[in-house]
Structures are given as C-alpha cells and as structure tokens.
Write a structure and sequence with these properties.
By secondary structure, the protein is an alpha+beta fold. It is built from 18 helices and 30 strands. α4 (57-70) packs antiparallel against α5. It holds the Pfam family Peptidase_S41.
C-alpha cells in the first residue's frame, strides 16, 4: 500500500477525536432546549413525519433533557455519545433539512477513505465497484473497476443498508443512496464520526484475486460553502439545500476533482468563447463548480449535455445567464439536463432556470409555515421589512389559523413570479431531465416544476428523487430574524455553544398544476422512465444512461422561433410553428398565420418597445416563445 500524497492536509481519525471533547454539561442542556424550540414551534413537517414514520422527536428531546438534568459533570459521559444521541433524534425524522450541526472541532471537517464506491446492476443483481482513488494511492490489484464484496466482514449490500438506516433519507431510495454515498466520505458537520477507526475492504482485484485492504479513516478540512446561511439575506432566506450532500459534493471536488475548485462561484464569463466546442469536448465555463456542458454522441444522435452540480449560489441571475450561454453553444436538436446528486441550494436559481426551457409561464411552488405563535412573531417582525425580507403574505392566514386551529398558513411562493418569467424560453429543442435519489430540496423543486409544467420527460436512475420539499433556515438565522430590524420581545433563541448549529424545515413546498397542493416532502418526483446504472455507466462516463436519454430525445420535434426587430416590423424565422402572436410591453399587438420559414409582420411601435414577446403556436397549442428585453 502507498500512502496518498495529495495536497489535502489530513490526520487519522483517532488523533482527531482525542482533542474533540469541549462541551460542558450546561452546553449540552442548552443544545437540547434549543432543539426543542425548533422542532416543537418551527418544524413544518412535524405532523407529516409523526404520521408517516411514527416518530415523536419532541418526546425524545424531553426525555434527553430529563436525563441531562440528573447528570453531573462527573457522570455526563463522553461528548461523542451526546452528539450521537442528539443526531439520532434529528435523523429520526428522516428530513435532510432538519439537522443538528456538530460544534468545533467537527464543523468544517470531513472524514474520508482514499476511494469511492458506486453501484451498478447486472440484470436484477446489484454490484459495488470502486470508481475513484486518491491521487498516488495504490494497493495490490486495487483501482477503479474492482468489485467490492465485503465491508468489515459484512456483505457489502447489507453493510450499505445498515449504514443507510442511520441517515435521514425521506424514502427507501433516498436512504439507500445516502447510505452508499456516506460509506467513504462523511462530513462531520452533519454526521457523527465513524464508529470504526479503520475499514477492512474485501475486493476482487483487477487480476481476479480476492484480497483485503485495511485503511484508516482520515480527517481533513472541507471546502467552505458558497452561501452564508446564517446571515439575513435573500440567499439565506431562500435556501433549499441538503447540507450533507452539498458537503460531500465539495469534498469530492477537493479530493478527486481539484481542477473544479475555484475561489469564486462566478467570474463573469464575458471573456469565454462564444463558439461551440468540438464534439465531446467540455465548453469552458466561468462556473465549473456548478456546470459541465458538452455535446455527446449517442446511438440516436448527437445531443447537448449539461450537468448542473448545485444550485448553491448567491446570485441566481448570474447562474441563469451562464446556463443560457452554455446551452446556446450546445446542439439545438435535443438537450440532456443532468441534475443527479444535486443537493439543491438557492430556490430562486432552481425556479428561474425553468423558464429557459419552456414557452409556458412558470408558476413557482407555493410554500406554507406551520401555525405557531413563534412563527407568527417572526412573520410580523418582517411584514414590511425594508431589507427585502418580506414575510407579510403569510401573516393574515397565520393570524386566522391561530383562531381556527388550521395546521398550516396560506401558501405563497418564495420565488418571485416576475423573476421566474423574466427572460422566457431560450432553448427550443426537446429536453430530458436525468434525476436520482440524491436530488434534493431546490433540485426536488426544480424537478417538480419541470414535470408540472410539462417541459419534457424525466429519466430516473432511482424510483424517485430525494423528496426534500422545504425551505430551510438555520437556528442563527431564526435568532437574527427576531432581533432585526429591531429586537422584539425576549427571544426564545439563545446563542449555541462551541460553534454548534441547527437547521429546520421552516416552509413546506407544494406542487402546482395537475398535482396542485401535493407536498414534495417524502413523496418526491417520480420519473417517467427508469434506468438502472450499468457497469459501463459508472466506469465509462454514463455511456448507457446517455444512450437511453438519446432514445427519448430522438424523433421529438425541434422547433425554432428567432425574432428580429426593426422600427415598425418584426421578422420571424420559425420551424414547426403555424401561428405567432406578438406583444409589445405586455399588450397584444399582432397575430399572424405562419406559412413559411421567414415571415415579416408589420408591427407599428416595435422600435421603441422595451419588452417584445412572441408566442408561437402549432394546432392551437403554445409550443414556443421568445422574449426580447431592451433598455
């Protein structure tokens, strides 16, 4: 075995844990009391979780508080045991938004092994293979492609299930996916450290010989998140993020894809090429931590492929602009949009993106608070907040609900409808969306909106998405919301000790259109087509998965609607459009039957108009739209 020599500073797990016992007994009591505040008075999914999973986190926290009240500093036990019990209560609600975040020195750290394991299918049989190893790490017969058979003597499939039972996936597919993902990387901010100091992996080597590999867990700093979720800002208020998945995604970049690590989430993109990349080559992007765009050759044709790794940005408008630039350089006959493993982020970014792929107006998903006096206090405090944090729409229904006994407030969208429809459709070919059970939160919202607005078909590598249907706020954000713009009555939120943190699902999201009112939480988004990952997929760049996506795209209509404006006329270049309606600054101005590829329409006043929208129809159905914005 060769010790990996990557540039990541690391230490062994046992050495790290020796210095990780800092909390006093009073600190522990305070953490439990604050957890009770969040779960009992803020947690929007509490009724759903009690019904679906037969859990009672409030009673468990009360019992833990009683036990702590009887302990002394001499009898309180090791800190890791307290972290494990409090984490287990949070994990028990099976909600990846609702977390106990461990204090220093765990915060910002990852525990990892020097390899990654993924699964694939051969018929109905599931296999586990190594897909990546750390740079310069080696062992006899070991490397990408070797099959793993046992984990610490336990058959690997059973070991994954045991690991999955510890984590909070909302459905069986999500729990299994999270169990596998955390076998080799665990962010210590949201997970207690591994129980074992080292792992014995049994594998069939590349030479066909069965061997065992013993490796210690290592601990290192992780890359920091892009968004500060503890400050009062639009980005923090609009968070829909699976923090565990986001931590693991950043850890994988740090350990295995260091070239994707950039100091900023966006560098503007103006200096980047405006020319399509060569077939199969990546298009350079100013946001490599968020996008990978290229054309892919499949048996059904050559299509655009764009991977969206995260929605975790501060500036959703810049995020959408870069997405539009990239898809404009891809083949226009079909787009494979891949959001697998995307843990979410800024809800605006996810819902702003939908408009670029459809002519239909986007209806952002509405959200609800659970009715409580504390939630009403927070909303009243920001009913007309000049800082831009407007919770006023929820106030009247919550005031009424406290009288009528209604469980939830009225439902209003977090994402502004204007922003969700500001630029309109940018891509006119067919689109297929690829999802898996690690799609969560803002990505669940995106997938739900994609399906609800009938943008295209969804191809899932799991039975559904992760089913995280909420807006998440941190304990620190809740505390600040009661203190700003001026302190209200005494706050129930107290500063947490040792750099500890907590997060809670604060507003639940609901589907729109055909599934209007259906919660996203625990249900997720069911794909139209199911693909089981193959060995070629996990080891050869998703070859079979992309081929299946190409089959879905092949033969679907490829439309065109280009618009040129002059002082008094509009010239349309179209394909598969038989009627066009033209609006100037929101007013209907002209309607014309389209009988040829290029059509010129007299439109007095087109020159000075600020917003020109053209809607294209085929057989009376809206099939394309183009919005031109001018100063």
């Amino acid at each position: 075995m060769t010790e990996p020599t990557s540039g990541v500073a690391k230490q062994e797990l046992d050495d790290f844990l020796r210095a990780a016992d800092k909390l006093t007994l009073d600190d522990r009591r305070l953490l439990v009391q604050q957890a009770l505040v969040l779960i009992e008075q803020n947690y929007v999914h509490l009724p759903l979780k009690a019904a679906m999973h037969a859990v009672n986190p409030v009673q468990r926290l009360r019992l833990l508080a009683v036990r702590l009240s009887r302990q002394t500093p001499q009898t309180m036990g090791p800190e890791w045991r307290f972290h494990a019990e409090l984490s287990e209560i949070f994990h028990g609600v099976r909600d990846l938004h609702t977390n106990y975040l461990l204090p220093q020195p765990f915060s910002g750290k990852i525990a990892f092994l020097p390899y990654l394991i993924e699964e694939h299918y051969d018929g109905d049989r599931r296999h586990y293979v190594v897909t990546r190893t750390l740079q310069d790490f080696s062992a006899p017969g070991f490397g990408p492609g070797v099959e793993v058979t046992h984990w610490n003597g336990i058959p690997i499939d059973r070991a994954v299930d045991i690991n999955a039972s510890r984590f909070a996936g909302s459905n069986p597919a999500a729990r299994h996916a999270r169990g596998l993902q955390s076998m080799t990387i665990r962010p210590l901010r949201v997970h207690v450290p591994p129980d074992e100091s080292w792992v014995v992996l049994t594998y069939v080597g590349q030479d066909g010989i069965r061997r065992e590999l013993s490796e210690t867990w290592r601990v290192s700093d992780n890359l920091p998140p892009f968004v500060n979720a503890d400050e009062v800002s639009v980005a923090a208020m609009a968070q829909g993020l699976d923090l565990g998945a986001d931590e693991i995604s950043r850890a994988i970049k740090l350990l295995y894809v260091p070239e994707a690590v950039t100091p900023q989430e966006s560098l503007g993109g103006a200096e980047l090429t405006a020319e399509p990349a060569e077939e199969g080559a990546d298009i350079p992007t100013s946001m490599p931590a968020f996008f990978r765009a290229r054309s892919v050759v499949t048996p059904s044709g050559t299509f655009g492929h764009i991977r969206v790794f995260s929605f975790g940005v501060n500036d959703p408008d810049a995020f959408v602009r870069e997405f539009c630039r990239l898809i404009g350089l891809l083949p226009q006959n079909g787009l494979i949009l891949d959001v697998r493993d995307n843990g979410g982020g800024h809800i605006f970014a996810s819902e702003f993106l939908l408009q670029t792929l459809t002519p239909r107006p986007i209806v952002p998903e509405p959200t609800q608070f659970i009715t409580s006096n504390l939630n009403l206090r927070i909303c009243r405090q920001h009913q007309e907040n000049p800082s831009g944090i407007d919770l006023g729409p929820w106030c009247p229904s919550m005031e009424q609900a406290l009288e009528t006994g209604a469980v939830f407030s009225g439902a209003f969208s977090i994402t502004p409808a204007g922003g969700a429809n500001a630029i309109g459709q940018q891509y006119f070919g067919p689109v297929v969306l690829i999802t898996n059970a690690l799609c969560y939160s803002a990505t669940d919202i995106f997938a739900g909106g994609f399906q609800d607005h009938k943008i295209g078909k969804i191809l899932g590598t799991d039975d559904n998405t992760g089913a995280g249907g909420a807006n998440v706020w941190t304990h620190e954000l809740l505390k600040l919301l009661l203190e700003l713009p001026s302190p209200a009555a005494e706050s129930p939120y107290k500063p947490l000790p040792g750099g500890a943190g907590m997060r809670v699902s604060i507003r639940r999201t609901l589907r729109v259109h055909d599934l209007a009112g259906t919660p996203v939480e625990d249900l997720g988004v069911v794909p139209d087509f199911r693909h089981r990952m193959t060995r070629r997929d996990v080891l050869q760049g998703n070859e079979d998965l992309l081929a299946r996506a190409g089959e879905i795209l092949a033969g679907q209509p490829v439309r065109r609607l280009d618009v040129q404006i002059s002082a008094a006329q509009v010239t349309l270049t179209t394909a598969l459009v038989d009627r066009a309606d033209i609006y100037l600054d929101g007013r209907p101005t002209a309607s014309v039957d389209v009988t040829q590829q290029v059509t010129t329409v007299p439109v007095p006043g087109a020159g000075p108009a600020h917003v020109i929208r053209v809607e294209g129809f085929q057989g009376g159905e809206l099939v394309a739209s183009r919005t031109i914005l001018r100063p």
